[in-house]
Design goal:
- With 113 residues, this protein is of the alpha+beta class.
- Helix content is 22%, strand content 36%.
- It contains 2 helices and 8 strands; from the N terminus they run βββαββββαβ.
- The strands form 3 sheets. The protein has a 4-stranded antiparallel sheet. A two-stranded antiparallel ribbon has the order 2-3.
- Strand 2 and strand 3 form a beta hairpin.
């Protein structure tokens, strides 16, 4: 798969415990991206953050590390990203979705050797 030099970067900010139909939302997003043939998806777990409700989520030792922020990043063509957005709107009950232009410098995989 090749990516054009001009692409888009989709970021989805949610909580690590957020679910849809009983499944972890960040896992569903990655699976959906793969199912729709997007170039790839990466999930990052935050150590501290807050969102629209201004509730701080932290991974400090004295607190349970539940509800930490999670960011899912996906880079692909505008067309493929746009095709994913209606589904995201359906499954995200709380969070933030951003989109920005991205310049692809390198996108390659090991050919098994």
């Amino acid at each position: 798969m090749n990516l054009p030099r001009e692409a888009e970067l989709l970021r989805v900010f949610i909580g690590e415990g957020d679910k849809y139909d009983g499944r972890l939302l960040y896992e569903l997003i990655v699976e959906k991206a793969r199912e729709q043939g997007l170039a790839g998806a990466t999930v990052y777990r935050g150590i501290l953050g807050f969102g629209a409700n201004s509730r701080v989520h932290t991974s400090k030792v004295l607190r349970l590390s539940e509800g930490l922020p999670v960011v899912v990043e996906i880079v692909d063509t505008s067309e493929k990203i746009q095709a994913l957005l209606p589904w995201l709107d359906e499954v995200i009950r709380e969070g933030l979705v951003t989109l920005e232009k991205a310049t692809v410098i390198v996108y390659r995989h090991n050919h098994g050797g």
